[in-house]
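Recall that a protein's primary structure is simply its ordered list of amino acids. Everything else, from secondary elements to tertiary packing, is in principle encoded there. The following example makes that idea concrete.
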Amino acid sequence: MSMDDRSQVESTGPTTHALAEVARFLQVVRHRFRLLMFCVVVGGAVGGAWYTLTPPKYESSAEILVLKTEGGAMDNKNSNSSNSREILDVMPTYQKVLTSDVVLEGAIKNLPAKYRVDFKGQRKARWTKIMRENMTVTSTRLTNVLNVKYVSTSQEGSARVVGAIVDSYLNFMRQTHRSSAKDTLDVLTKEKADLEQKLGNKEQELLRVQERAGVLLLGDDKNMNVLIERTVKLNEALIEAQKKTLEAKAYLSSVDRALQSGSDLSQLAQQATGDLYREILLRDMGISSSDAYTVTKFEQQVQDDRSELANKRLVYGKNHPTIRQLEDRIASTERWFSERGQAVADSSRNIREREMGPRLRIMAEQTLYQAQARERETRAEFDREIGQATVQNNEMVQLQILELDVKRMRSFYDLVLDQMKKIDMGSDSGLKISVVSEPRVPLSKCAPRISTTVLLCLFMGTVGGLGLIYVLDALDDRFRSPDELQWQLGLPMLAMIRRMDPIPGSGIDTVITHCKRDSIEAEAFRTLRSSITFSNQDTTRLVVTSTEPGDGKTTTLANLAVAFAQAGKKTLLIDADMRRPGLSQLLDLKGPRGLSLVLREDRPVAESCLENVFNLGVNNLDVMPSGLRPANPSELLSSDRFSDIVAWAEQIYDQILIDAPPVLAVTDPAIIARIVDGAVIVIRPDKNRRKMVTRAVESFKATGASVVGIVANHLETGPNSEYGYGYGYGYGYGYGHDQAPETNSSDDYEDAGYQRAA
């Protein structure tokens, strides 16, 4: 299949086909616009009558608020959100109760007789059902509000009915609560008495166990066991003593290693415990805290003397007594600093070598001895307390069990009291139901409304009209215009040929382009010739066919061939309809010679064709008739010899036109179309049905054959024509002749296995 063919197939996809169908239907609606307007007017008349005759209806409504109190303001405030969620979950239940038979029967019972207008003529057994059908109960989303509505033919009665329903609902809820609250309160009272007795016994037992276990009550539900608390404290003291012992051992070990290795003991001296000891040690080394003050004082004096010396030198000479006195004082102070540092260093070295090491070791041994003694005492006391705590272990376990039991029983007892309080304080089993919007008498009717009636009439009239047009269009499956042909088939319209009256005579003299060259009909065929010539594809070899017999494809082909010949193109016209050769009959060329003879002969194609081609006296036009009817025309056209005939003609002629049977009748047109450049389909919109034409075009595309375009034939224009062209006429040309077949079998269309499609 060529690229053009594929694009043509794609253009007729589902989307394009749907759009084309919509466009075609809109065109049909435009042609039947009067029918659509008639349906709209009828719909308006019916709606007006309904609006006038329908009794008015009135709607009244009321709103009911449902709240869950949960015991009042003394309860936990956090329960409000959970209560709201619970109400929202059960709102459908309250809606169902509002429409229950009990509530509605109570409303009917309390409703005055003059407001029972909706029940007139109805049995009492149906009154509840009628009220339920006329009322609606809804709940506003995410709220606790129920909306009750009722529609009645009585303006005041609608409000009275809503009020009666609301009152009946409130009475039903109150009675339901009273009957259930009394039973619940009796059960809870008995349960409360049993719990009080059990809880008292359990608390007495708990007190006895606490006394045996030595437990002190500290208030705020906190208890303390003296033995356990003392054991905990001793355990903490033992851990601290063990820590001190480890630190003393580590310090003694560090001092021994420093003495053995001769390392500096200054860092260990800094770790010595006690500020007093460190002060004594520093004083022995000649660097007490008072020496630090003296050193600081001398340093400040040196700085002052230097500043004074610098100032005096600006006034006095270097040998002045004041200058020399300041210089001597500064020199003596610096000499003291130098000698003191050396003395301190020598003293520190002697102390480290002779006294510091032994002193540090003695101190470390004493510290270790004290830490070990404290650890032994603490451990002995801890062991004694542990022995006593083990004896009381069973009593403590029993004490914990009793405390849990008392706590559980007290919680259950509080829950029973809370439930009893709710029943006593509330009157709706934790629910508070109140009317927040009273029913009112409506000021205007709710139905029927003029705006709704008008819109509904327009809608129904339009839909009914479109539906009627669609049904009529489906029953009348015809093409309404040439444009519709193009939309539906997706093919170019090559020419539109109006209805032609038969011309008396025979042969080529009955072809209108030959005998009436200046007529309007002849101009239509020249238009067809131009459309084919200027087509985007090669159109040298064409096959002309139709959907079904009687569409005028033979007459169209004959006139087209004369038009090509008149344009100076050497044209060959081949009658390949060997079943019912209408072209041979039209041109008066019936006889044994023709295409069938060439296909069956064994002679060279060129030699045989030259003997079976005739000239009718028209310049540049030759005709090859069909010849005698064979028994197997499809097989002959499928043979290589027919392809050779087309190839021979292509070498000699400028234009080759082949007449083929109707495409829906036999497969001959599809066979020929695969050999030539393309096909031209002649259509009679007044006679051919849309489905048949669409099937004919699709049969070519399915075999990969190219369709050049379509020709709308037998059109009639004028003021009396329907949709631009007229129907109901006959054409003076019959498809078929009385020539006997060459074989003994009858070979008309019916005997060949097909008939004209309905």
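The longest helix spans residues 321-391. Residues 226-375 form one domain.
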